[in-house]
Amino acid sequence: MLSLTRPLSVRPRFAPKPLSLQTSRCLPLLIYQASNKPMAKGKKSYWLLKTEPNEWSWDDQRANGGVSQWDGVRNRQAVNNLKSMRPGDLCSFYHSVSGAASRRIVGVVRVTKPWYLIGDGDIDGAVDVKEIGELQKHVELKEIKKAAEKEAELKGFALIKQPRLSVVPVSEWVWEQLCEMGGGFSEGNELADAKEE
């Protein structure tokens, strides 16, 4: 989302800001799942983050040590999903573009800092995420929809049911299916299973 040639003052609305490799302290938050039930202590959650690659691509995310501030989200449900994230949660990095053939999950990022306010207001906020690895095989939306024809839980996946939502909760079962479709992801020179991270 962020053009490296553009000054930050004219950053697109949905562009995460790159961060330095130094992280500031995380503020404690009471975290809720999308269902608004308190999460079990120590239990990891899974998410899908959408971005348009002409504004913020996987290559942009990998730059600057793979760390960025995920901000610019305005939809109330998507903001609530961001507020539910906590450090250690894993997110699929999804390229969302106008052509259906290009919509796909390309990699995995980890939440490194939970929701915090940015700017002068009390509405705009962000989470920080760090690149973990690229999927061995990008998982296209049409592949997910085809699998959903056979699996009821995939049919209820918010990526399919609410296609305009930019921050989507992912059940553990769906996460495992998506990772299997993508053949795991590469972290450095090793092949890793995104569920194990």
Keywords:
alpha+beta, disordered N terminus, globular, 6 helices, about 200 residues, single chain
Please give a quick description of this structure:
Helices cover 21% and strands 29% of the residues. It is built from six helices and nine strands.
Descriptive notes:
21% of the residues lie in helices and 29% in strands. The N terminus is likely disordered. It is built from 6 helices and 9 strands, in the order ββαβαβββαααβαββ. Strands 1, 2, 3, 4, 5, 6, 7, 8 and 9 form a 9-stranded mixed β-sheet that branches.
Radius of gyration, taken over Cα atoms and rounded to an integer in Å: 16 Å
User: Oligomerization state of this entry?
Assistant: single chain
Number of helices: 6
Q: Mean pLDDT across all residues, rounded?
A: 78
Element-level helix/strand string: EEHEHEEEHHHEHEE
Q: How can the largest sheet be summarized? A: 9 strands, mixed
Structural class determined from secondary elements: alpha+beta
Distance between the termini: 26 Å
Shape, per Cα inertia axes: globular
Work out the number of β strands: 9
Pfam family, one: EVE
Protein name: Thymocyte nuclear protein 1
Subcellular location: Nucleus
Domain EVE: 45-181
